[in-house]
Amino acid sequence: MTDRIPRGGLSRRGLLKGGAGAVGGFAATAAMGQGTAPPAAPAGPSDPRDPLPFEVTLNGERIQASAEPRTTLLDWLRETRELTGTKVGCNHGQCGACTIHIDGEPRLACLTLAQQVERREVTTIEGLAAVAAAGGYAEDGLHPMQAAFVANDALQCGYCTPGQIMSAVAVVNEGHASNAAEVREYMSGNLCRCAAYPNITAAVLEARERMPEAAADGGGARQELHLRTGEA
Ligand code: FES
Ligand code: FES
Predict the structure, then answer these.
(1) Is 155 in the pocket of ligand 2 (CB under 6 A)?
(2) Is the CB of 158 inside a 6 Å radius of any atom of ligand 2?
(3) Which residue of 21, 24, 95, 112 is 20 to 30 Å from 2, comparing CA positions?
């Protein structure tokens, strides 16, 4: 067979070596030609996980706060402010365990982003007694609704109780506690797995008698308890 590669000519090994050298040389030349580091990439959008600042009045205290845009008010209250009285139930707007007040209106903290309460007044169960104290109708350091829940044994495990009380205060403030049937209707968004409903209803009716007609809870609440969304 004829040797197609002439003696002293380019062998396959030599070709590969030479090719590699050529490529290397081209790269080196290109790099030398640039002379400087490539320009920095333009700044992209900020990390969506970066905390953003916001201002809120929380249980009567105006504070400068921050939270990731995706953080719910429920998580922020519990994990950042350590206000664990607001409970995590379904986390999907179905049970009422996370009910708090925003500007005096009942809202579900699990459907509200922390950033949505910018310049709003947020009241949790921890701040409810102070609201009553400021209005001059606290009872032994409790809001009348809290005292009525105790007096009427309106709980068993107690997990739903903070949300029940926050909703109940709003129901009375809005004038929807004229009788047991109305209380049951307007409290229907708050579930109690222990089925303490009869005692809860009794407590709401009792507290109604000891609360001012339009309790100074930051304003009258719109009554949309079973249509509530997290919209602040
Ligand atoms: S946790 Fe159930 S409604 Fe928010
Ligand atoms: S008291 Fe147990 S869930 Fe209501």
Answers:
(1) yes
(2) yes
(3) 21
The per-residue pLDDT for range 140-190, each reduced to its tens digit, is 999 999 999 999 999 999 999 999 999 999 999 999 999 999 999 999 999
Whether 117 contacts 179, CB under 8 Å: no
Ligand 2 centroid, distance to 29 Cα (angstroms): 76
Going from the Cα of 87 to the center of ligand 1, the distance in angstroms, rounded, reads 8
> What's the gap in Å between 59 CA and the centre of ligand 1?
20
Distance CA 115, CA 152 (A): 37
Provide the Cα torsion 174, 177, 186, 159; round to 10°: 100
Beta bridge partners of 122: 58, 102
Domains of the chain, earliest start first: 52-208 (3.10.20.30)
End-to-end CA distance of the chain: 89
